[in-house]
Amino acid sequence: MEKGFPIRSAFTLMEVLISMTILAVLMTAVAVAFDASMKNYKDNEALAKQMNIARAALLRMTNDIRTAREIVVNADSTQCRIASNGDDQPDIIYRFDGNVLYLDVCSSSGPPIHYVLCENIAEMTFTWSPVPGQPSLVRNVRITMTVTDESSQTSKKLAAAAVVRRNL
Asked: 29, 76, 98, 137: which sits with the fewest CB atoms below 10 Å from its CB?
């Protein structure tokens, strides 16, 4: 039998502890990255939901503006009053108040009915352009809105424009 180093068939305690430490550091890094990824996904999902609601509201507003009989101009750029097509049709008011976009349906038979179209709006403006030679008539309306997620950390800006077809 030769004298020499014995053949090892197992890891030493020190080797196991070092490998466990390295594994713990790597797993912590993976967990932090996964947590940040999930938080980012949830934030983007909430903002995407709000953006879809805001786009639907913009589509409704631009359709109503295009088919309006008249746009009533006032000094407040946070609301737009639309005189609808028929005499028996109610007037519509889109107004921004306190981070909420409201739709007010005004009829001659009773008080206005208020609907919430979109929430979590940080800023919104209506900008009018008059018909050339007839400053009392509105030719087109540009709408801009800044939509935020529910925690108001992330925001996106939307814009749309509509031409009043009867005033071309």
From this structure: 98
